[in-house]
């Protein structure tokens, strides 16, 4: 998976063939909720959830998790934002 994401990032192409941000978002919400219920620090899943929602807002909703690198770098110009 990491190698695949690295290749996507190098090419700046993030096919959502197997997973995509709109699919990932509710999973991250569930992870955050479950972690909180079990007394586990939720800061990391909250951060990832926030980045995922930002990616969806920037037009990456149907693209893979690797597309979040564009949000982290602030380079969402390719998607018109």
How much helix, percentage-wise, in residues? 55-70%
Question: Roughly what fraction of the amino acids lie in strands?
Answer: under 5%
- Whole-number total of structural domains: 1
The rough form would be described as elongated
Say how many strands there are.
0
Main sheet? none
Low-confidence stretches: none
**Helix run count:** 4
Briefly note the structural class of the backbone.
mainly alpha
Order of helices and strands: HHHH
Mean pLDDT: 93
Cα radius of gyration in angstroms: 13 Å
Distance between the termini: 28 Å
Protein name: NADPH-dependent reductive aminase-like C-terminal domain-containing protein
Pfam family, one: RedAm-like_C
InterPro entries: 6PGD_dom2, RedAm-like_C
Domain NADPH-dependent reductive aminase-like C-terminal: 1-73
Structure characterization notes:
By secondary structure, this protein is mainly α. It has one domain (20-79). 63% of the residues lie in helices and 0% in strands. Helix 2 (21-37) runs antiparallel to helix 3 (43-60). The model has no long low-confidence stretch (mean pLDDT 93).
């Amino acid at each position: 998976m990491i190698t695949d994401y690295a290749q996507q990032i190098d090419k700046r192409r993030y096919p959502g063939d197997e997973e995509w941000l709109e699919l990932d978002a509710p999973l991250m919400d569930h992870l955050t909720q479950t972690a909180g219920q079990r007394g586990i620090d939720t800061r990391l899943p909250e951060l990832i959830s926030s980045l995922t929602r930002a990616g969806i807002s920037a037009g990456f909703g149907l693209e893979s998790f690797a597309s979040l690198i564009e949000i982290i770098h602030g380079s969402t110009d390719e998607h018109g934002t």
